[in-house]
Design a protein that fits this description.
single chain; Rossmann fold; two-stranded parallel sheet; alpha/beta; globular; seven-stranded parallel sheet; binds adenosine-5'-triphosphate; binds magnesium ion
Length: 288
């Protein structure tokens, strides 16, 4: 099936206010097998705790600073920092479209989900968050709410047991003590902290609802991006969608089926969906 066919097939399956944001990401598939690489192991900075000296305001004085090397970003396919990169440009385009659709209404909470596992949701969430943080006017908080397959800390090369939301909910750790600064100006990460057995119940709890409301209010001047599991696999993303103002769904070229898109679109709050990112699409004309 050609890329055009995939795009048209998916597009024709979604009606209503959905605006398609066609994403063309790296053609690295041909260079490295997806699963053989996995993610880059933790770097030597993992676990270090430093004061951010209040550079990001009072709320962030306890943020742990864990600078991530460019090499880790490169290995984990995080490209949004790169100059002169066509893929980074695609994320700038996505960022711009998101600004246009959220700024007028003051919407600042955006959930990233998708149709099935391994479509690239987390990678899109990270690249999008970095791209937004690179904008002169915008700061970003990136939150891992995928308690079934938490991965944002690994994409940033942090220790597998980096604490996060799990420790907040189960052990009472204050949110401020769990925030991580990965060394990118205006970007803060809130990791998941590990898998949680009854994640749907936790996500549906008043405590979770209160926290998301607090994040929205407390960080009203910044975008808050939430990485969540795929819609077809568990109820978590649908339960979570009640708390956010906007959603972005990730589809994978030559992989996501139109039936899966239709089924998901029947379940999500469609008015919140800003668009669908088509990940892993080969460049037209054979190269980029
Ligand atoms: N455009 C792409 N080109 C090459 N590899 C990609 C691309 N997008 C994602 N991958 C790779 O596919 C794998 C899955 O990506 P990612 O973890 O972002 O998916 P996910 O949808 O969040 O998965 P899960 O459902 O398990 O949370 C990773 O190894 C990632 O590096
Ligand atoms: Mg993921």
């Amino acid at each position: 099936m050609t890329d055009r066919n995939v795009h048209e097939r998916l597009a024709s399956s979604v009606k209503g206010p959905i605006q398609w944001i066609q994403k063309t990401m790296e053609r690295m598939k041909t260079l490295q097998a997806r699963r053989s690489n996995g993610v880059t192991p933790p770097n030597e900075n993992s676990g270090g705790v430093l004061d951010a000296n209040g550079t990001d305001g009072l709320h962030f004085t306890r943020t742990r600073v864990m600078p991530v090397s460019r090499e880790i970003f490169r290995r984990n396919r995080i490209v949004a920092l790169e100059e002169m990169s066509p893929v980074a440009d695609q994320f700038k385009l996505l960022r711009t479209q998101i600004f246009h659709r959220t700024r007028p209404g003051g919407l600042n909470t955006i959930q990233v989900s998708g149709f099935s596992s391994e479509d690239g949701k987390s990678l899109v969430a990270v690249n999008l968050a970095i791209s937004i943080a690179r904008d002169a006017r915008q700061t970003t908080l990136l939150v891992d709410v995928d308690f079934r397959h938490p991965s944002l800390h690994l994409l940033f090369g942090l220790h597998p047991e980096t604490p996060g939301l799990k420790q907040h909910f189960l052990d009472g750790a204050p949110i401020e003590s769990l925030l991580v600064s990965p060394g990118i100006d205006k970007l803060t990460l809130l990791p998941a902290g590990g898998r949680i057995a009854h994640s749907t119940e936790l996500i549906g709890s008043p405590a979770m609802e209160a926290l998301i409301g607090e994040l929205k209010e407390r960080y009203s001047d910044r975008y808050v991006i939430f990485d969540t599991p795929p819609i077809a696999e568990c109820p978590d993303p649908l339960v979570f969608s009640e708390y956010v103002e906007a959603m972005i769904l990730v589809a994978r070229a030559d992989h996501t089926r139109s039936g899966a898109v239709r089924a998901a679109m029947d379940r999500v709050p469609r008015g919140k969906v800003l668009g669908i990112v088509l990940n892993d699409m080969k460049a037209e004309g054979g190269g980029r």
